[in-house]
Design a protein that fits this description.
alpha+beta, 2 domains, three-stranded antiparallel β-sheet, elongated, transmembrane helix, membrane, transmembrane, PepSY domain-containing protein
Length: 121
């Protein structure tokens, strides 16, 4: 057992990480020989109470990466409420409002030509 790393950023109490190595032998087809692959499961246990807090493996690592990219949580804070997201949201709001202002201004100055029906010659 070893002290945990930053895989559980929201959990602040002391944890222990237990790494379980096991072999997975999937059977692909009836005629093919089984191929052995090594899998790793990490179990996180609360150091004072002994309760299992979480378990992780390669699939959950991929899911964590996708959530990190989706929420733009590059600082590993465990939430989407971080400075990068705030700056990106304010920039997007500024660009949206300035674009809406320019559209209204161009309509007011009659720079757009709306033709519903064309004259045929």
């Amino acid at each position: 057992m070893q002290a945990p790393n930053a895989e559980l950023p929201k959990f602040c109490d002391p944890l222990w990480r237990i790494t379980l190595n096991h072999d997975v032998k999937p059977q692909l087809a009836a005629t093919s020989a089984p191929s052995a692959a090594s899998a790793q499961t990490r179990v996180y246990v609360h150091s004072k109470t002994g309760l299992v807090i979480a378990h992780k493996n390669a699939d959950s690592d991929l899911a964590d990466l996708m959530f990190k990219l989706h929420f733009m949580d590059y600082l590993n804070q465990g939430s989407f409420n971080n400075p990068f997201s705030w700056i990106f949201a304010l920039l997007a709001l500024t660009l949206s409002l300035s674009g809406a202002y320019w559209v209204v201004e161009n309509i007011r100055l009659r720079r757009y030509r709306f033709r519903l029906f064309r004259e045929r010659l």
